[in-house]
Design brief:
There is one protein chain. By secondary structure, the chain is an alpha/beta fold. The protein has 2 domains: 214 residues, Aldehyde Dehydrogenase, Chain A, domain 1, CATH 3.40.605; 196 residues, Aldehyde Dehydrogenase, Chain A, domain 2. The chain is built from 18 helices and 25 strands. Strands 15-18-19-14-13-21-22 form a 7-stranded mixed β-sheet, sandwiched between helices. Strands 10-9-8-11-12-24 form a 6-stranded mixed β-sheet, sandwiched between helices. α4 runs antiparallel to α8 and α11 packs across α12. It is globular.
Length: 541
């Protein structure tokens, strides 16, 4: 049996899909959330096909798992108007609500979200091909992130509950919301990455327009009623449809105060330019990345290989933090590539519901063709596929390929592949790797592998000024979520983490007065009678 035949066999007839992982029926969404109500939709809809193909009499076919609305500019404007009205220039119920009550709303949402865990996990698995184990992990990590956000906001509010006296002026400094937020998340972590911006934006008192990602739309549908039931009307509004159709008008309106997007820098730049008053627009962006691993002659090869496999192939390499280019010192390059190929060969490939599976089908229909272009380009410019069966493709599944030696003439040297390809570049001088990162348009993270302290120090000092995080003897990664997550150059704008996200979606505001007897009495009366939600010494436990 050929390897291609082996890959074809991972796709099974529908009746062989284990019952506990199958979708009982198609999920056809015929409503959307605007202004606190689930509105019926009778217009055009988008069919959602899973990257998981099923074996049928006429061959392999992507499984249809449901549909969702393709709304128009009209519905998008209605959603915008609802968010603007709910914010009401900062006078709405939500932006003026005290922090403790906003936290209660979010805690209520967590409870209702947990009730939908099983269906959301299944939809993550079926919509984007993520393994069941990783889909469960994504859901659980998202809940943990929300709880951590609540705890961080409590700490922030406790620190703000006291008054500051300086130079005869008494003041209370707190954080206040920014306005209407347009939130667009990515397909690779459609729940977690989306909620790491959506939840901080809401909990700080902003109102929201939420556009689910193109791949990973349906999984948010079971959560819409939770948003409706837990927050005042107009605080959370969903928009559906073609991004290039509905989003430009929203930006051109000038009514969007914050743009948060995890995706392409090209798209982000185009959207920002559409806003009539760019200086009023705050952008929190997680964008392209081409994170490099630098494996020096003093590295532990076994450890470097293990971390490179994890870093480059977790969720098929479809992570912004993935290792997407690997620099290896020439003295150990051949040994490294040989061991890397052996480790890749051990990875289990198959369907998302299989236990221990590491490699699964890809959600983007055009991705296999693009990856083949990258492989063909590398081969034409002198590289070879260093692992057995590398690049073999059947429908939506692409088996990982190690390309070696890669040079600057190749697409893989500069383009973010966002898939299971590992370009390996041999180098002789560490300056070559530093120059690569200086020239790169990306600046998120880098991983250094070495057991030589002087060598690591020699790399750390220049590289912290090129990327936002330098990892020593481990893969690039986002977590822990309390650490700042950002990037330089075209890789990010703004900083995300549990605490940083709260700051990103708010601004410091203060109430100040001269320290006179009359003002002392006035402030004491406001505070003791709980007449203001902002000017308050209430302590949240």
């Amino acid at each position: 049996m050929s390897f291609t035949d082996s890959l074809e066999k991972i796709f099974v007839p529908e009746n062989e899909i284990p019952a506990q992982f199958s979708l009982a029926e198609e999920l056809n969404q015929r409503e959307y959330l605007i202004n606190g109500e689930m509105r019926p939709w009778n217009g055009a809809f988008q069919e959602v096909y899973s990257p998981v193909c099923v074996r049928a009499p006429n061959g392999l076919q992507r499984k249809l798992i449901g549909t969702y609305p393709v709304c128009t500019e009209k519905e998008a404007v209605e959603a915008l108007d609802a968010a603007v009205a709910a914010y009401d220039n900062g006078r709405g119920q939500w932006p003026t609500m005290n922090v403790a009550d906003r936290i209660k709303c979010v805690e209520k949402f967590i409870g209702k979200m947990r009730e939908q865990k099983d269906i959301v996990v299944k939809l993550i698995m079926w919509e984007i091909g993520k393994s069941h184990a990783d889909s469960v992990k994504e859901f659980d990590r998202t809940v943990e992130y929300i709880y951590a956000t609540i705890d961080a906001l409590k700490d922030l509010d406790r620190d703000s509950s006291r008054f500051t006296i300086e130079q005869g002026i008494v003041a209370q400094i707190r954080r206040s919301p920014l306005g209407v937020v347009l939130c667009m998340g990515p397909f690779n972590y459609p729940l977690n990455e989306t909620f790491t911006t959506l939840i901080p934006a809401i909990i700080m008192g902003n109102t929201l327009l939420f556009k689910p990602p193109k791949h990973g739309t349906l999984l948010h549908y079971p959560l819409l009623n939770a948003f409706k039931d837990c927050f005042p009307k107009g605080v959370v509004n969903t928009i559906y449809g073609r991004g290039q159709v509905i989003v430009p008008g929203l930006m051109q309106s000038g009514k969007i105060n914050v743009l948060t997007l995890i995706g392409s820098s090209k798209v982000a730049n185009e959207l920002k330019k559409l806003h009539p008053k760019v200086n009023r627009l705050r952008a929190i962006l997680g964008l392209d990345a081409k994170n490099a691993a630098i494996i020096t002659q003093h590295a532990d090869i076994k450890l470097s290989v293990q971390e490179t496999v994890l870093g480059s192939l977790s969720f098929n390499g479809q992570r912004c933090t993935a290792l997407k280019i690997v620099f290896v010192h020439k003295s150990i390059a051949d040994s490294f590539v040989q061991e890397l190929a052996a480790e890749v060969n051990k990875l289990k490939f198959g369907m998302p519901w299989e236990s221990g599976v590491s490699l699964t089908p890809l959600p983007e229909p055009g991705k296999p063709a693009y990856l083949k272009e990258c492989i063909d380009d590398a081969l034409a410019n002198g590289a070879k596929i260093a692992n057995e069966n590398g690049g073999t493709t059947v429908e939506s599944f692409v088996y990982p390929a190690i390309l070696y030696p890669v040079n600057r003439q190749m697409k893989l040297y500069r383009e973010e592949q966002f898939g299971p390809l590992i370009p390996v570049v041999p180098f002789s001088d560490l300056e070559e790797t530093i120059e690569y990162l200086i020239e790169s348009t990306h600046g998120q993270q880098v991983s250094i592998f070495s057991n030589d302290d002087k060598e690591i120090a020699e790399l750390i000092d220049p590289l912290v000024n090129q990327v936002s995080r330098v990892n020593i003897n481990c893969q690039c990664q986002r977590g822990p979520d309390v650490f700042p997550f950002t990037g330089r150059k075209d890789s990010a704008e703004g900083t995300l983490s549990v605490v940083d996200a709260l700051r990103s979606f708010s601004i410091r505001s203060l109430v100040a007065a001269k320290l006179t007897e009359g003002n002392k009495q006035l402030i004491n009366e406001i505070v003791s009678e709980h007449e203001s939600n902002f000017l308050s010494t209430k302590f949240i436990f």
